[in-house]
Design goal:
By secondary structure, this protein is α/β, with parallel strands linked by helices. It contains ten helices and five strands; from the N terminus they run βαβαβαβαβαααααα. The chain has two domains: 119 residues, Rossmann fold (3-Layer(aba) Sandwich), CATH 3.40.50.2300; 68 residues, Winged helix-like DNA-binding domain superfamily/Winged helix DNA-binding domain (Arc Repressor Mutant, subunit A). It is 50% helix and 12% strand. Helix 3 packs across helix 6, helix 7 packs across helix 9 and helix 7 packs across helix 10.
């Protein structure tokens, strides 16, 4: 029996994908989550999942942080990103950060089934139109992913706010924590990223930003 987890904040899409998969794969159990936190809980509880179908812009994912963090904590779990974007820069980053497949939401049920079958066999999968166009990430970009994976979700939120140019007191307000806690998070972020100031931290954060809005 196969066990899949669909992690997407759009209930109608989850239901449609679940129905399609159940029509294709016999003896299939499908779990669902709608944010990063609930996804981590399910991953911790269900240790025999065969595949994670991950939405990039699900709440808590914060661009590529969710993918990087899950890849680091569950290195054996096959991950396929299912996204509304077909931009090659995003696809390149997703594949470079450990996904085994990138499935556009515009894909037909037949294409999705074929993609999943290849991924379950340990292969990578991309649409034919993307296969020869995806770029390899540099060693520095891969190293960034390793560093960012060491951040807690709260620390990554602080890093994202630093990237947006917010002051410590503004970050404290947004996260409903004290300025002292913000400062402690920033100190930990600098240490984990191996940087010494905000500018260096922001440069690292900018490498994980998705260059364009993505629906899923």
């Amino acid at each position: 029996m196969n066990k899949f987890l669909i992690a997407d904040d759009h209930p109608l899409f989850r239901e449609a994908l679940k129905s399609s998969l159940q029509n294709t794969f016999s003896e299939l159990t499908v779990f669902e989550s709608d944010n990063f936190k609930s996804t981590l809980k399910l991953l911790d509880k269900e240790d025999e999942l065969d595949l994670l179908l991950l939405d990039l812009h699900m709440p808590g994912n914060d661009d590529l942080y969710g993918l990087i963090k899950i890849r680091e904590e569950y290195p054996e779990l096959p991950i396929a990103v299912v996204s509304g974007s077909e931009e090659l820069t995003i696809v390149s980053k997703v594949m470079g950060y450990g996904a085994l497949g990138y499935i556009p939401k515009s894909s037909s049920a037949t294409e999705i089934a074929a993609a999943i079958r290849e991924i379950l066999e340990g292969e990578t999968w991309l649409p034919e139109t993307m296969k020869d166009k995806v770029n390899q990430l540099s060693g520095d970009e891969v190293e960034v992913a390793t560093q960012v994976a060491s951040l807690t979700p709260q620390q990554y939120k602080v890093l994202s706010y630093l990237h947006e140019g917010l002051l410590n007191k503004q970050i404290a307000y947004e996260l409903n924590i004290s300025e002292a806690t913000v400062k402690a998070h920033i100190t930990a972020i600098f240490r984990k990223l191996g940087v010494y100031n905000r500018t260096q931290a922001v440069l690292i954060a900018s490498k994980l930003q998705l260059e364009s809005p993505v629906e899923g």
